[in-house]
Amino acid sequence: MGFLRLALALLVVYYHAGGFAAPGALPDGLTAVQLFYVISGFYMALVLNEKYRTPAMNWTFYTNRFFRLWPSMMVVALLTVAAFVVLDKVLLYHLEMGLGPFVDYLGTLPTGALAIAAITNLTVIGQDWVWFMGFAPGGISWSATQLDPARNGASFLINHPTFTVAIEATFYIVSPFIVRRSAWLAIGLAAAGFLYHIAIYLAGLDRYMWSYHFVASGAYFYFLGVCAYKAYAALGRLPPDWPYWRLLARLEPAVFALALGGLLLAWNVVRAPSLSMALILAAVLPLLFRRTRRNALDRKIGELSYSVYLIHFPLYLVLLDTVGGAAVLLLTIAVALAGAILLYVAIEAPIDRWRQRRATTAARAAPNVSQATAAAE
């Protein structure tokens, strides 16, 4: 499953660095992010049911998620700010100007706008909400449709794509109270998320804002992933001598091939492809995870996806400004991959080892909790 995670991250890189276009017949970056929510829901249900198994371990889960996401995000943010200083130019989403004029402009904004920008950049929480805000010398405005891009609150985020991390963080906060419960709760929440997308379509709301940037838009995808875990857990409860295991193993290659064909067909034929593509992905995730969960290389590859996602957009803006031309796409992919490896080796791997020790210690201390069986996170 790690190769799939990295592939989705690279689709996002192509979407941004390739001029906000889908790579041929493959999904665009927006759909790739939504499919990633499905995988995220699967993994969070996995670790909360097999690793952080009781409410006594919720705090360890929250803090371990924080230390998984925040350090790398801050390193990339600091490097981005350093690049602005070196270039003497600020390169943000729909907001490019000299460093001096930008600092002067910040001085004209109300204190509330500066506070919101600082808090969302430092904590990631709320980065999805600032898409509906406008920051201008006259004050803070709000709109249900897209505001002036150059003054949209999202244009003051150091790293534009991290608003999706804010959306995921919201689901992480509520997950301990949901994913350990009956599968019917996850099914109901996924159904509610589906109805949300139908409702905003019927209401004529701006699709880009309400079906992608607003936190509720991710519920369908995330809780489909939780449903996929529940199916995986049900498979795991079947006895080893279940007569259909051998048949299932033989059918797996055909199932994966049909799923891949279904994903591509949905993208190229269906009007709102992400909803049906997420359903197809959720259906095959239990089999895919069973096939790959003990593959160390696959896991290592998957670990790079987050860093590639973090690095690529500020890197793309810098390369577009300094290099330009057709080379930007390939350079962005190459440097983002190299940077992701460095970030993993220097920052993420040491922190991950510490996080795993914390989880093990908490599991031993928690009442009625046996040694965790899940190592993936």
Tell me what you see in this structure:
With 377 residues, this protein is mainly alpha-helical. It has one domain (2-89, 170-200, 214-364). Helix content is 68%, strand content 4%. The strands form two sheets. A two-stranded antiparallel sheet has the order 1-2. A two-stranded antiparallel ribbon has the order 3-4. Helix 1 packs antiparallel against helix 13 (327-365) and helix 12 (296-322) crosses helix 13 (327-365). The longest helix has 39 residues, at 327-365. It is globular.
Order of helices and strands: HHHEEHHEEHHHHHHHH
Radius of gyration: 21 Å
Number of domains: 1
How much strand?
Answer: under 5%
In angstroms, what separates the terminal alpha carbons? 12 Å
SSE class: mainly alpha
Q: Count all strands and give the number.
A: 4
Shape: globular
* Helical content (DSSP H or I, runs of 4+): 55-70%
- The largest beta-sheet arranges its strands as 1-2
Keywords summarizing the entry:
two-stranded antiparallel sheet; 377 residues; globular; single chain; 4 strands; disordered C terminus; 13 helices; mainly alpha
What can be said about this structure in brief?
This protein has helices spanning 2-17, 29-50, 58-87, 99-106, 111-123, 163-174, 183-203, 207-213, 219-236, 245-269, 273-292, 296-322, 327-365; strands at 89-92, 95-98, 133-136, 139-142. With 377 residues, the chain is mainly alpha-helical. The protein has a two-stranded antiparallel sheet with strand order 1-2. It has a two-stranded antiparallel sheet with strand order 3-4.
